[in-house]
């Protein structure tokens, strides 16, 4: 029997990531090749014409899984009945703006959109925040959408996770699918901690090895590898003069697909989720942890050994998130 369509909201849909993301969703990359979708696309008034252009292209692409398109600048209409919300829209930092000014704009956007989701989305709606500052935008959304379960509000660190897999695969000259179980801890910012202490790789002779042993260069792993992953977004912006839209869109699909359909056995992924105190990370922030997913629920991987080097880095990125949280709250007053 054909499945009922799932309603997927993409905010900021006329932007760079939105333009890469909506065709992926309509092709089944996010929810599977047998799952029909209805796309809800939201953007702001100045982008209304461009948004309509994206709608025209979606119609012209004649996607078999696409059962409807709502393109609107009305947040209530956009949120009506959505089962999945991918929040890409936000206010970018502009020349001469202070951190606090950018935070203040995004806090008010996420407060308003939280209220609209709370009122109009499906009660079990799963939310993924992509727009920066992603972890803190997600926290504000959680605060102002109290009837959406905490576990349904997440932010994107899968792009950083995939970047870490990519760097290891390039270094070892193996296919990226042979590398697994890297971890991104913390904030989607330059304080994030890409950790390979528990990662493994299938080497060219078919044997599974720890990434640390296969690389055999702790100095590289503790310096260049970490900074390359932390700075990759900035490097892409420098090269393209635009953000990493293709890889961010692909990572957003990976995040939702694994959350809804489950992670592969023996494999974990990184997701920004509301901290429950695991690994000594204080509750009250959205922090990236290693998670496995089953039946539409994520759980934090427990019991991984944390050495002193990792502890310092995990705490530093948590501290930054606490500071972002206070800044965000000060913008609410
Ligand atoms: N978490 C992650 O891994 C990544 C996050 N990002 C972030 O994703 C966001 C989007 O990036 P791009 O698509 O490149 O930016 P963009 O500027 O091309 O698109 C953003 C879109 O959001 C719209 N928008 C602004 N305010 C809105 C509102 N209140 N409601 C709905 N739409 C609104 C804009 O009109 C624009 O169309 C940025 O915040 C960027 O920093 C980018 C790459 C990776
Ligand atoms: O700062 C940005 O917009 C880009 C970004 O988050 C990333 O590529 O990781």
TrEMBL record:
Signal peptide: none annotated. The gene is LOC110414428. Residues 157-326 form the Lactate/malate dehydrogenase C-terminal domain. Pfam families: Ldh_1_C (PF02866), Ldh_1_N (PF00056). One of its GO terms (biological process) is tricarboxylic acid cycle. Keywords: NAD, Oxidoreductase, Tricarboxylic acid cycle. Coiled coil: none annotated. CDD domains: MDH_cytoplasmic_cytosolic (cd01336). Substrate binds at residues 93, 99, 132, 163. Belongs to the LDH/MDH superfamily. MDH type 2 family. NAD(+) binds at residues 12-18, 43, 106, 130-132. SUPFAM superfamilies: LDH C-terminal domain-like (SSF56327), NAD(P)-binding Rossmann-fold domains (SSF51735). The active site is at residue 188. GO terms for molecular function: L-malate dehydrogenase (NAD+) activity. Residues 6-153 form the Lactate/malate dehydrogenase N-terminal domain. This is Malate dehydrogenase. It comes from the Eukaryota. PANTHER family: MALATE DEHYDROGENASE. InterPro entries: L-lactate/malate_DH, Lactate/malate_DH_C, Lactate/malate_DH_N, Lactate_DH/Glyco_Ohase_4_C, Malate_DH_AS, Malate_DH_NAD-dep_euk, Malate_DH_type2, NAD(P)-bd_dom_sf. It comes from Herrania umbratica. Its EC number is 1.1.1.37.
């Amino acid at each position: 029997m054909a499945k009922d369509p799932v309603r997927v909201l993409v905010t900021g849909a006329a932007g760079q990531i939105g333009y890469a993301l909506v065709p992926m969703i309509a092709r089944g990359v996010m929810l599977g090749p047998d799952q029909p979708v209805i796309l809800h696309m939201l953007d702001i008034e100045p982008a209304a014409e461009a948004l309509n252009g994206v709608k025209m292209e979606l119609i012209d692409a004649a996607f078999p899984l696409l059962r409807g398109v709502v393109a609107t600048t009305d947040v209530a209409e956009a949120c009506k009945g959505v089962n999945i919300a991918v929040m890409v829209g936000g206010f970018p930092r502009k020349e001469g703006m202070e951190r606090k000014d950018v935070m203040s704009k995004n806090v008010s956007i996420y407060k308003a959109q939280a209220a609209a989701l709370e009122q109009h989305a499906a009660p079990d709606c799963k939310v993924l925040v992509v727009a920066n500052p992603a972890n803190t935008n997600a926290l504000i959304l959680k605060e102002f959408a109290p009837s959406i379960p905490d576990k349904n509000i997440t932010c994107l660190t899968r792009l950083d996770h995939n970047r870490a897999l990519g760097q290891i695969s390039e270094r070892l000259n193996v296919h990226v699918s042979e590398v697994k179980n890297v971890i991104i801890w913390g904030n989607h910012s330059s304080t994030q901690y890409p950790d390979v202490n528990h990662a493994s790789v299938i080497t060219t002779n078919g044997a599974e090895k720890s990434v640390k042993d296969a690389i055999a260069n702790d100095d590289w792993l503790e310096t260049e590898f970490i900074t390359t992953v932390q700075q990759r977004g900035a490097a892409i912006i420098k090269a393209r003069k635009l953000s990493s839209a293709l890889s961010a869109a692909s990572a957003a699909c990976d995040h939702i697909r694994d959350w809804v359909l489950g992670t592969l056995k023996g494999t974990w992924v990184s997701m920004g989720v509301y901290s429950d105190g695991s690994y000594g990370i204080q509750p009250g922030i959205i922090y990236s942890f290693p998670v496995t997913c089953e039946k539409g629920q994520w759980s934090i991987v427990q019991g991984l050994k944390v050495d002193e080097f990792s502890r310092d880095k995990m705490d530093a990125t948590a501290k930054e998130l606490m500071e972002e949280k206070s800044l965000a709250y000060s913008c609410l007053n």
